[in-house]
Amino acid sequence: MTILNLMLGKGRGGLEQAGADYADALAHAAIPTLTITHPDAWVNPSLAEVPHITLKHCASWDPFAILRLRRIAKETNATAIICHGNRALRMALTALKGHVPVIAVAHNYSINRFVKADHVFCITRDLIEEMVHRDYPRSNITHMPNMVRIPTIQPRTTFRTPPVIASMGRFVEKKAFDLYIDAIHLLKERGITFKAILGGDGIEAPLLKERAQGLEDVLTF
């Protein structure tokens, strides 16, 4: 009896990291789990120590991939499938709906198809309210924030002086790091003492670094 953990994204983002985090968390809880990813997924090297296979497919409707997913579910005696992202959910609904409980993880608001899932994990309480607004039963929703493995460290008893304002994520337009940089400019113009850190990478990196000109003494990328 196995939980299938399906994540078909290839890139380097929060959804892909969450798929790896679920694999790690389920293994830590000693729950038999098989994680399934795209052959070219960025997270694949991080899954070396957990049960993991890849599923080659050309799209979520790929009939050969759908048949293989059904076979995997049968061979592992799957008790549920956890789906990260719309592509994984579409394939799981086609392959397994009515045979294995399909659980969708709502990472963002692209959730039109999520009402067809048997259960939904929402990473925020606002996403829960959005699912309920779409007439999805609240009883079939679980609040499941994103997970992270935190090392054991000695807690600090004082605040940093000066304070450090930090943010992290993919450097893409929807993350709005341009607003973060604009805010840093305003703080500096007002003579407020602080340090800032912006962590991440992505297609907007050159634009963000250009926008941050004049902040070299307070902002570190």
List keywords for this structure.
221 residues; alpha/beta; seven-stranded parallel β-sheet; 6 helices; 31% helix
Compact overview of the structure:
By secondary structure, this protein is an alpha/beta fold.
Question: Can you walk through the features of this model?
Answer:
The protein has 221 residues and is α/β, with parallel strands linked by helices. It has 6 helices and 10 strands, in the order βαββαβαββαββαβαβ. Strands 3-2-1-4-5-6-7 form a 7-stranded parallel β-sheet, sandwiched between helices. Strands 8-9-10 form a 3-stranded parallel β-sheet, covered by helices on one side. Strand 6 (119-122), helix 4 (125-133) and strand 7 form a beta-alpha-beta unit. Helix 2 (63-75) packs across helix 3. The chain is elongated, with a radius of gyration of 21 Å.
Percent helix: 25-40%
In DSSP terms (H or I, runs of 4 or more residues), the helix count works out at: 6
Quaternary organisation:
single chain
Low-confidence stretches: none
**Tertiary shape:** elongated
Number of strands: 10
- Terminal Cα span: 46 Å
